[in-house]
Write a structure and sequence with these properties.
Blueprint (H helix, E strand, L loop, with lengths): L2 H19 L17 H4 L24 H25 L2 H19 L3 H6 L8 H20 L2 H7 L10 E2 L20 E2 L1 H16 L7 H17 L13 E4 L2 E3 L10 E2 L2 H6 L30 H9 L3 E4 L5 H13 L5 E2 L3 E5 L8 H13 L9 E9 L18 E6 L14 E4 L5 H5 L1 H7 L5 H10 L4 E4 L6 E5 L4 E3 L13 E7 L19 E4 L7
Parallel strand pairs: 6-16
Antiparallel strand pairs: 1-5, 2-5, 3-4, 6-13, 7-8, 8-9, 9-15, 10-13, 10-15, 11-12, 11-14
Helix pairs in contact: 3-4, 8-9
Length: 544
């Protein structure tokens, strides 16, 4: 049987099986660990290496006979396994990481769906047959829509936790990470902001323009902009005054809306998820890296004086490293952030893609991490990677500010800026404000206290605390291919930023955190003060 026929037979069987096994209501107390889909794989010694077989557009075929209860439980189970094996990957050696990475890829696709490009590539010869490719594209997006509808019953149970009128709920911003199928934190299939949805539309439009996704996705773009977003904005909580409707035509054309309407958190109605064809917060496209080669062997710039940089860091300086990466590495990391549909988490003015949901799959990330260990043996060496993320900023919400004053529970913080310089409208800003003061030691040592300390609602308290303790700060301005490297205990914040509108002009930073940051033996002062110097490396080409 040809691959094309087998594929569509599998899809038909999946739909029939789901329709016949969907229960009348979802039992939210199901023992998710009892779902068999992962048990044969993830309780072994991590030797699973065979290729992922694509038989549906979302989750593995082992779940086809599970019905709604089983498939939702399967996705949540995959999500927890994904978190678990990311932690293993961060502390493991290179050889072990390769095996764990294979499992992490499997778990991500179980949770977030098979990317369109992998789905089509799995069809083999279809890629050279326009008619068949068009049919496969419709099959893919219809499969996503069907899968999204299976979540509705589970959604109805979850929305009982949220008080509000029928349809669209305006709820407080949440910061905890939860499985994508549960309403209770960012990064799931239901919670979003208008700015987040507009980013989703812009990214789909961009991917179509660079021929990564078919034109079919422009239908989703139009639906988001002209149906879903205006409907969300019309809810009573978005109106600036009673009886004055919020009319939202576009991000630049609206009337009667509250000032923060684009960054308010909303719970989508099921019909909206359907209208977006099940595409929201899904892994629709995973970029493939240009291979490392003898022509492009490095990610970090080999011409930099890494020994001097390491010396200055150990003396307590904040490092400003210009011309940090080679051209190919910079280009590839920027492309990954622009093309990868991994930005599931939303904040007040920016969106996040994280190590445990696809970032670690991109080869140049791993090359970058390994080379930092090699170049900074005394600063990083064998120190485990704590976490990593990309943040992509909303140019139109720059007045809301970026990340507030905070510290990271790590030892070494590396912030790298990827957006082209032409996008930055103010060359003196857009970077990081870094203080010479760490949070109180008890806040760093206790994870729960540290979480509370870093909340947005505590911003005013942190500002007053810094004033009371006479904290000083330095600023490292934004520049393409520049890094700020500093002791992660230092309090720091995003500087004011002003970037051009447009998808490719969004401010993008990549953050790498190494080590735990709680090894402070011998530190007895309640307030730890560090140097207030910045070592400005001018890079291999010199100048700014």
């Amino acid at each position: 049987m040809p691959g094309f026929v087998r594929l569509f037979a599998a899809i038909a069987a999946t739909i029939a099986a789901v329709e016949s096994h969907t229960p009348s209501h979802f039992n939210s107390t199901v023992d998710k660990e009892s779902i068999p889909v992962m048990s044969h794989l993830l309780t072994t010694d991590l030797t699973f290496t065979h290729a992922i077989q694509v038989t549906t557009t979302s989750i593995h075929s082992d779940g086809n006979q599970l019905g709604l209860t089983g498939r939702i439980a399967q996705m949540d189970n995959c999500w927890r396994k994904l978190k678990k094996y990311t932690r293993v990957m961060m502390v493991d050696g290179v050889g072990e990481s390769e095996r764990v990475l294979t499992i992490s890829k499997y778990c991500l696709r179980c949770t977030r769906g098979i990317p369109y490009n992998e789905y089509v590539l799995d069809l083999g010869s279809l890629s050279s047959d326009p008619a068949a490719l068009k049919g496969a594209s419709y099959s893919y997006i219809n499969g996503m829509t069907n899968d999204a509808r299976l979540l509705h019953e589970y959604y109805e149970i979850q929305q009982n936790e949220i008080l509000g009128p029928e349809g669209i709920f305006n709820i407080p911003t949440l910061d905890r990470f939860v499985p994508p199928t549960e309403v209770g934190g960012k990064g799931n299939f239901y919670l979003t902001t208008i700015a987040h949805l507009e980013h989703h539309a812009e990214q789909l439009e961009y991917l179509v323009s660079v021929h990564k996704l078919p034109n079919l996705y422009l239908e989703v773009v139009a639906t988001i902009r002209h149906i879903v977003v205006p409907q969300i904005a019309s809810s009573s909580t978005s109106s600036s005054a009673p009886g004055v409707p919020c009319v939202y035509v576009s991000s630049s054309e609206r009337s009667g809306c509250v000032e923060g309407v684009r960054r308010s958190t909303f719970l989508l109605a099921p019909w909206m998820i359907d209208q977006m064809r099940g595409s929201f917060n899904r892994l629709l496209y995973m970029p493939k890296a240009v291979p490392r080669s003898y022509k492009n062997p490095f990610c970090l710039n080999p011409e930099l004086d890494w020994k001097t940089l390491e010396d200055r860091y150990l003396e307590g300086d904040v490092l400003q490293i210009d011309s940090l990466m080679t051209d190919v590495c910079l280009r590839e990391l920027r492309r990954f952030a622009q093309e990868g549909t991994l930005f599931y988490d939303f904040k007040r003015s920016y969106f996040g893609a994280y190590l445990d949901e696809g970032v670690r799959e991109f080869d140049w990330i791993n090359i970058l991490i390994d080379e930092f260990r090699e170049r900074f043996p005394r600063v990083i060496g064998s120190m485990p990677l704590s976490t990593a993320w990309f943040y992509k900023y909303d140019s139109l919400e720059s007045h809301a500010g970026g990340i507030g004053i905070h510290a990271d529970q790590a030892a070494v913080n590396i912030n790298i800026w990827l957006t082209e310089d032409d996008a930055n409208l103010d060359k003196t800003s857009g970077g990081l404000v870094i203080y010479d003061t760490a949070p109180p030691r008890e806040e760093v040592y206790d994870p729960e206290k540290f979480f509370v300390w870093n909340q947005d609602i505590m911003e005013g308290y942190r500002q007053n605390w810094l004033k009371e303790h006479g904290a000083k700060n330095i600023t490292v301005p934004f520049k393409e291919n520049r890094a700020a490297v500093f002791d992660s205990k230092r309090l720091h914040a995003t500087d004011t930023y002003h970037f051009k509108p447009g998808y490719t002009n969004r401010r993008i930073n990549l953050t790498l955190l190494f080590g735990d940051g709680r090894d402070q033996e011998g530190k007895t002062d309640e307030v730890e003060k560090m140097s207030n110097k910045v070592f400005k490396n001018m890079g291999a080409t010199g100048g700014y």
